[in-house]
Structures are given as C-alpha cells and as structure tokens.
Design brief:
3-stranded mixed β-sheet; single chain; 115 residues; globular; alpha+beta
C-alpha cells in the first residue's frame, strides 16, 4: 500500500507542478511544488509548496493557489485516472528556505579559500 500511495503522491505532484506554470493569477509568484501527501481514501491531499520571495509574496501566492484549487482539481481529474479526485489544501514548505539558510551558515563558518 505504501508504494501505491508514493506513486499517487508523485503523480499528483507532477500534474500540479505542470499546471501551476499555466495559471494566469498575478498573485502567484515563483512557486514550486515540493511534495504531496494524499490521504489513503484519496479524499484529501496536502500540497506543500515553496515560494520565492518575501513573507507578503508567500501569503499572496498561497491565497492565489487556494483561489485556483477548483481549476487544479479539475486538471487532476482529467489527467489522472483515480477513483476520487482529492480536495486540495496548500501549505507552505519551509524546508527549501531552511536549506538555503543552513548553506549560508556553513559558508560563513567554513574557512575561506581566499589565501
């Protein structure tokens, strides 16, 4: 069952990533779908996204994604042959931002190659 859910999650992530590029909402900035967790009954899916930009830009992008959830669900229904099309919920994924911050800290602590 775990392998099946992993395939479902990856398929949903891939379709949504392709669909986000085509959205015309000016609120949605540079958004990357970092992961999807679909419930076992396929009724709900949490979509984790990373947004490039400030806190204000992140909030605007999440509002834009919530407004477009019906369009994105319809796209999922058309492209994936699933028993149910999951209800989408978008959440910000801070892992990319955290990774960038960790890289900066490591660079600051690492001895310079200047000499």
């Amino acid at each position: 069952m775990a392998d099946r859910m992993r395939r479902v999650n990856e398929s949903v992530r891939q379709v949504l990533a392709e669909a986000l590029v085509e959205l015309q909402d000016p609120r949605i900035g540079l958004v990357t779908v970092t992961g999807v967790e679909t419930s076992p009954d396929l009724r709900h899916a949490t979509v984790y996204v990373s947004v490039l930009g400030s806190e204000k830009k992140r909030a605007a992008s999440l509002r834009g994604l919530e407004a477009a959830h019906g369009l994105l669900q319809a796209r999922l229904g058309r492209e994936l042959r699933m028993k149910r099309t999951p209800q989408l919920v978008f959440e910000y994924d801070p892992s990319v931002e955290r990774g960038v911050r960790m890289t900066q800290l490591i660079d600051e602590l690492a001895p310079g190659d200047d000499d």
